[in-house]
TrEMBL record:
Domain HTH lysR-type span(s) in chain numbering: 14-63
Record organism: Enterovibrio qingdaonensis
InterPro entries for this protein: LysR-type_TF_proteobact-type, LysR_HTH_N, LysR_subst-bd, WH-like_DNA-bd_sf, WH_DNA-bd_sf
Name of protein: LysR family transcriptional regulator
Keywords: DNA-binding, Transcription, Transcription regulation
Gene3D superfamilies found in the cross-reference section: 3.40.190.290, Winged helix-like DNA-binding domain superfamily/Winged helix DNA-binding domain (1.10.10.10)
Family: Belongs to the LysR transcriptional regulatory family.
Entry-linked SUPFAM superfamilies: Periplasmic binding protein-like II (SSF53850), Winged helix' DNA-binding domain (SSF46785)
Length: 297
């Protein structure tokens, strides 16, 4: 190919098939026929002189050449989409589907209502929220961004601070009367602890981290269930303060190990490290950052 044969025909279809991992799903996303998508991709392959997909009756996978071409074209299509949005953003409302992954009581109590506000302002936009703490692949799982808290492991993601929070250890009066109150984090190894996603709890003392491996007879990845178990006297809970706010106010739980709580556990908006984000995602993230700009736990 030379500069005189440069053409964008078929590139949008190619990138969509790669993202959707199939021609039928790509056609649905592009609101056109499967035959049109297949024809455009075939013409693109003919112009390039190479196969971009390895096709079978059950799957469609990128070839080595297709993978290299996709990495370049993905940015190209995203850039074109953003350019179109910048020119026409005042002429249309947000449309399509915005997909967000989040987990935890903070997300349930505070982030989800903020997204409801955003959805209300954009009646043509569908907002899908998936509550799961699993690590997501933004491309394969189709998420625009995620809400996470604590230390982030994936340096390939963009992380923007949403709010600073603190962890709190609590127990019911009933539990403490029966089992005694721990005076330091290491004493937790002799107590029943209510485990969420991590059985190594991190405490602090004079700037020094104190990790403690805990165990107990109730484990759950839902904060509300942990609160209920704690109130029922099943053990000690250690989660962000906001999870226990109501229970503390009504006196069903009491704080313990106060000098050792970990502070400044940050909640983040995280998304794929790429040059362009869809307008719907950028505006939703801006809405959340503005909403939580003065939030205090």
């Amino acid at each position: 190919m030379n500069k005189h044969s440069l053409s964008f025909e078929g590139i949008v279809e190619f990138v969509t098939v790669a993202d959707a991992k199939g021609f039928s799903e790509a056609a649905r996303r592009l609101n056109c026929s499967v035959s049109h998508v297949s024809r455009q991709v075939s013409r693109l392959e003919q112009r390039l002189g190479t196969a971009l997909f390895a096709r079978s009756t059950r799957s469609v996978k990128l070839t080595e050449s297709g993978q290299q071409y996709y990495l370049q074209c993905q940015e190209l299509v995203s850039g074109l989409s953003q350019a179109n949005e910048l020119v026409t953003r005042t002429q249309f409302d947000l449309q399509g589907t915005l997909r967000i992954s989040m987990a935890g009581s903070f997300a349930e109590q505070f982030v989800a209502p903020a997204l409801v506000e955003f959805a209300k302002c954009h009646p043509d936009l569908t907002v899908e929220v998936d509550f799961s703490s699993r690590r997501v692949n933004f491309v394969e799982d189709g998420f625009d961004f995620a809400i996470r808290y604590g230390r982030l492991q994936d340096s390939g993601l963009v992380a923007r601070k949403l709010a600073d929070r603190s962890l709190m250890a609590v127990a019911s009066t009933e539990y403490l009367l029966e089992n005694g109150e721990p005076t330091d984090p290491q004493a937790l190894t002799k107590h029943s602890c209510l485990v969420t996603n991590n059985d190594t709890w991190m405490f602090e003392k004079e700037g020094r981290e104190i990790p403690v491996k805990v165990s107990g007879r109730f484990r759950c990845n839902n904060a509300n269930a942990i609160v209920d178990a704690c109130k029922a006297g099943l053990g000690i809970g250690y989660m962000p303060k906001s999870s226990f706010k109501q229970s503390l106010a009504e006196g069903s739980l009491v704080p313990i190990l106060t000098p050792f709580w970990t502070k400044n556990i940050t909640s983040w908006v995280v998304y794929q490290n790429r040059r362009f984000l869809p307008l719907k995602a950028r505006l939703a993230i801006d809405h959340l950052l503005n909403h939580f700009s003065e939030w205090r736990e």
